[in-house]
Amino acid sequence: MGAPPAVQARGLVKTFRDQRAVDSIDLDVRQGEIFGVLGPNGAGKTTTLKMLATLLSIDSGEARIFGIDVAANPHRVRQLIGVTGQYASVDEDLTATENLWLFGRLQGLRASEARATTRRLLEQFGLEEAAERRISEFSGGMRRRLDLAASLITRPPLIFLDEPTTGLDPRTRGQMWDTIRGLVADGCTVLLTTQYLDEADQLADRVCVIDHGRKVAEGTPDDLKAQVGESTLQVQLAPGADQAAAAEVVRRILGEEPVLTPESGRMNAPLPDADRAADVLGGLRAAGVSIRSVSVARPTLDEVFLALTGHDVPPADRADGEPGPGAVDIPDDRGSIAPLEVAR
Amino acid sequence: MSTTVLEAPATVLDASAALARTHGRPGIRDTASQTLAMAWRALKKMRRNPEQFFDVALQPLLFTAMFAYVFGGAISGDVDSYLPLLIPGIVAQTVLTTCMATGVQLREDMDKGVFDRFRSLPMSRVAPLAGPMVADLVRYLIAAVLTYLMGLLLGYRPGGGVPGVAGAVVLAVVTGWAIAWAFTWIGTLARSARSVQGISMMILFPLTFLSNAFVPADTLPGWLETFTKVNPVSHLVSATRDLANNGAITAQVGWTLLTGLVVIVIFLPLSVVSYRRSL
Known about the structure:
The structure holds two protein chains of two kinds. By secondary structure, chain A is α/β, with parallel strands linked by helices. Chain A has helices at 45-52, 74-78, 96-106, 111-124, 140-151, 170-185, 197-203, 221-226, 243-254, 276-286, 301-309; strands at residues 7-16, 19-29, 34-38, 60-65, 68-69, 81-84, 158-162, 189-194, 206-211, 214-219, 231-237, 259-261, 266-271, 291-297, 340-341. Among the domains of chain A are: 7-80 and 156-225, Rossmann fold (3-Layer(aba) Sandwich), CATH 3.40.50.300; 228-300, Alpha-Beta Plaits. In chain A, helix 3 (96-106) crosses helix 4 (111-124) and helix 9 crosses helix 10 (276-286). Chain B is an all-alpha fold. In chain B, helix 10 (232-246) packs across helix 11 (251-277). The longest helix of chain B has 32 residues, at 79-110. The radius of gyration of chain B is 22 Å and the shape is elongated. At the A-B interface, helix 2, helix 3 and helix 6 of A face helix 1, helix 2 and helix 5 of B.
């Protein structure tokens, strides 16, 4: 028998009151890979992760971490994992140095080892200058970094990251991605949850999509995107333009049926390849159809969802500023990576 | 801006080696050092938020002066002769109030994100509860010492001298620590810090006032006198009086320590079970 899988879960169930937050989920994460759990708010991502990380009891089903049963041996499992929660789990009243020192001591490091590890981690995560500042004075990005550093003190072979970049600005987000890639280069296995297809695409070797506590798809990010087409061409036709002629151009050039909204003059068409947008625009000009604006959008989580489940991301899940249907990957107020890319 | 990319490590992580190093449960020595680490954290937080000492510091000062001047004449004829009765009572009351703060702060603490990390670490489940309680010894000490100082200022001259008072302070601190486990249990059960406070008050007020802390028990109606005799707070107050006023170690000291032990034996396991369940 080879190396045991980093995570193996069978039929995980968690029920809150009468609602099944997680409804028989199976997961297999191989050693050394980044595995993404993708889904909207309230889909059961965090609950699943908490069960695997011994933070929530498992109502039914079985989970093994490196072959060790989570329910039977939580203490042993805790020695193999690092957990970085959605909300920084560090002590607000302590400084960065004190936090890392404390977590080191709690995990059995001698005082001198804890000091050395603290110094090394602060340096690795670029937090030396903030070392003696209290966490309550930290920015969101610094907190996340410290939080991740705190998970790495004993160099556990499996790291759980719950929405590691939600709420971060694009630059900090990119740094976090680099850090996560570095972990895997170091020999770690990473299981992360995310709401952003973009993030899963950038980081994950394999992804599973969760909706209403159930797994609706699993595969590489490319597999997922293939199900919704590479991108979408969005054209705003000029008032009075010949919509039927425009649709005919799309049909001829892309071989796809466009979605027309006659009242607003909007036309959307799936693009197998972003370069084909130029052909469509050329075709529209040749057919004498004038346009107002044009954009090429990459598939969003919502579109993946629509394609996989046949329903939209439920509106309730978007209540606190999550991206809406056909909207951007990241809400603008959190500083987005330009989601709508004009034809390349 | 320094880079956040991890440098190439000297050795690549080996999951099977990490797997081989795991052990089944935390040992006694681990538990002790984790408890001390948690106590260190609690002390740091106390130093950073000195306002939480207000109640510990103000209550003995205020209550001692208030009770002495308001009740002194009525109960004992004058303030001076009331003080030997009152001061040990105030010490008991203050220590119990401080126990309540232990429960309230544990609840507040447990609601914070950092407790998620404590739960995810391979650490003893007693340490997060016992650590703050070790740090709280400082609070009981401050409360007890301040009360005696205030008494001295008002004219209290304890007959037990320095050894008697020191013994009374130690007894109060130890008892306070033991009884705090009951409030720790409430802290792990209740939904919010506010409800911990509410529940604790409901328990504390009758316990302190229906005792011999402020009045001689023989002035009470028969049924109430009987209750005050079995009330553990009365034992603490009597033991403290015997120590501070006469320098005598009486059977009351034994009863007080026994009560403390019983509280620990019952509520320590309950607290740990309840903390585990709150996962």
